[in-house]
Write a structure and sequence with these properties.
InterPro entries: Thymidylate_synthase_ThyX, Thymidylate_synthase_ThyX_sf. There is one protein chain. The chain is α+β, with helices and mostly antiparallel strands. It is built from 13 helices and 7 strands. It has 3 domains: 193 residues, Gyrase A, domain 2, CATH 3.30.1360; 65 residues; 40 residues, no CATH class. It is 47% helix and 14% strand. A hairpin with a 7-residue loop joins strand 5 and strand 6. The relative contact order is 0.14.
Length: 302
Amino acid sequence: MTLTPEQQAEIDELRSQPRQTLRAVSEGMEAHLYKAVPVLDHGFVRVVDYMGDDAAITQAARVSYGRGTKAVSNDEGLIRYLMRHWHSTPFEMCELKLHVKLPVFVARQWIRHRTANVNEYSARYSILDREFYIPEPDALAAQSVVNNQGRGEALSGEEAARVLEWLKSDAGRAYDHYQEMISTEGQQGLARELARMNLPANIYTQWYWKVDLHNLFHFLRLRADAHAQYEIRVYAEAICAMVKDWVPFAYSAFEDYRLGGAVLSARGLECVKRMLAGEEVTQETSGMSKGEWREFSSMLDG
């Protein structure tokens, strides 16, 4: 992980000046404020600001749902009820703002979640640092033979060494040319907004990313999943650790019903009922396609 001296100085200054406040405070998240958590080889995630806590969720729910929630006797039970029944609005009362340093190709996956506010480092105005994501050898994997979006077994031996060398040399050469194109020594120099197009997708960028808790949970459900691409999953896992300390009741419910839970189709539910009744159900008698049956069976096998 690399923080610039200016960024580190800003973090140190902010952490050295605690302030009293009347707003809702999460002690768990206070411990994360301004601390940069390393991710991948040069990346990080740090909490810049947050709003709300578990109590903000239940407060909003009791206002909007009124008497309908009075059967739920405590905040944790209410939050679990809201999560279980997909009542999303109360979770939108909490917000999180992160500063993230990540490879460009990860950022392009991440930005598909269009429910956040984003401000990215501009290579039109500034010169990008010479920092590239180079995978660890065990993260160099072949294309999966069963999943067009996934990885298979890790490369090994000469092939792995050759790929790593290409990644390093290609990135270095592209950056050398980038520097030469924008140089002003003895030449006019190409505009930064044009020179950047020659940079590889594994160069690092940075952004501020602000999102409410409901949409953050949706992001984490997809990106912290074991099937997500490794390079974005490690960021999601780092954020999960922060959210767990920030809103422990909400995160516990999310972990139970979303991360660790499963949604059955009507056909899937009918198959489970038939199995519980002692019937042997196969793909041919299930009414499911081969792909659906494979996923259904995998879910049951755990």
